[in-house]
Prior knowledge:
The protein is α/β, with parallel strands linked by helices and 285 residues long. The protein is built from eight helices and ten strands. The chain has a domain at 102-172.
Amino acid sequence: MMNYSAGEAADKASTRGAAATAAVTAQNLTATRGDRQVLRGLDFTVPAGRITGLLGPSGCGKTTLMRTIVGTQAKVTGTLQVLGRPAGDPALRSRIGYVTQAPSVYDDLTVRQNLDYFAAVLLPGRAHRHDRRTAVDRAIEDVDLADHAGSLAGRLSGGQRSRVSLAVALLGTPELLVLDEPTVGLDPVLRRDLWNLFHRLAAERGTTLLVSSHVMDEAERCHRLLLMREGEILAEDTPEALRRRNDTATVEEAFLHLVDAANTRAAQAARAARGNEATTEEPRP
Length: 285
Ligand SMILES: Nc1ncnc2c1ncn2[C@@H]1O[C@H](COP(=O)(O)OP(=O)(O)OP(=O)(O)O)[C@@H](O)[C@H]1O
């Protein structure tokens, strides 16, 4: 895979960020799972052609937010526009690639057979034979699995199987790629290679990427960040701006700073509410 300086690109992108159009726009977005409100009135945008990192602790609602964007989440309210259409619109299906945390590949097929199968669904018929072949070759190359193209998916490592899933999502050249924790369990070299691929997709194909992670050092590799906590967006900005605004050396420290500030605000609001209750109570006879 081509090497790439994420830092340089992030700097350039951050200066262009303000002019970028939005691939996703959310207003007052909520989602309920079971009887619990998991997303609590979110407002945010995901700029087109950039890598947006969705970061936050386990259970804060990252997967739910991604499912909402790709249109698979029930019990959603608010406004959510994706690539100029309401989320879930059938016309968006071929324009979005979604890779879940669990790789969705056929273990009894080889890597190439898996891709041939999904390519046949996307580009059916004899007339597309050449395009299918080109798309499959490119996807295998993209995820660096050329040496394993003939291996059964069931015999691959966890990281290799997730890369087959990613290759399937890349087949249709999606405009928006939604990746749920794509680097979990990967060694540092593979993680770096995948991030290089994400940057190439944004820079060369204009793909918009929304990538979730709970590993804060991955934040530095993104053009923009959505920092989430307990179903809310704590901050939305470039890594550089987050560090500067919070006067910290890393995004992780900025995140902790924002969490502390949010906790202090919540405690003050709770105290004020208790105070109001006490003053509005009827005097005892
Ligand atoms: N099917 C479900 N029914 C009810 N609650 C659910 C369901 N799935 C998830 N939740 C709850 O919704 C909340 C958000 O879950 P979600 O999977 O979106 O978080 P996450 O940030 O992606 O976590 P992780 O980083 O561990 O994948 C969690 O509290 C979880 O327990």
